[in-house]
Write a structure and sequence with these properties.
102 residues; mainly alpha
């Protein structure tokens, strides 16, 4: 059964976007946590602010990850549709055996 290139690109984009989305959100949380620790060390935040506001930092990480993910998903979808259309007429041909010894 042959699937359309758009359908295959959508499946690939969903898998790519969901995997990368988790990684970007976790990375954003790490950057926010490091920044919070530095600001706390400078005395601009009260001690243990990060431990008391984990939910807020997670929400900030999610909000910062959304524009990055939208851009990556649109970029990847365009690339995936083009690649799937290029592979539409591709047929595998196995290599021919050579008669000489290497």
């Amino acid at each position: 059964m042959s699937k359309s290139p758009v359908y295959s690109a959508i499946i690939a984009t969903v898998l790519f976007g969901s995997t990368l989305g988790v990684l970007v959100a976790v990375g954003m949380f790490g950057v926010i946590r490091i920044g919070q620790s530095m600001i706390e060390a400078l005395g601009m935040l009260p001690p243990r602010w990060g431990e008391n506001n984990v939910t807020l930092m997670m929400e900030m990480a999610g909000a910062l990850a959304v524009p990055v993910m939208v851009w990556f998903v649109v970029w990847f979808y365009r690339k995936a549709v083009k690649a799937e259309r290029d592979l539409l007429d591709y047929r595998y041909t196995p290599p021919q055996p050579t008669s000489g010894k290497p």
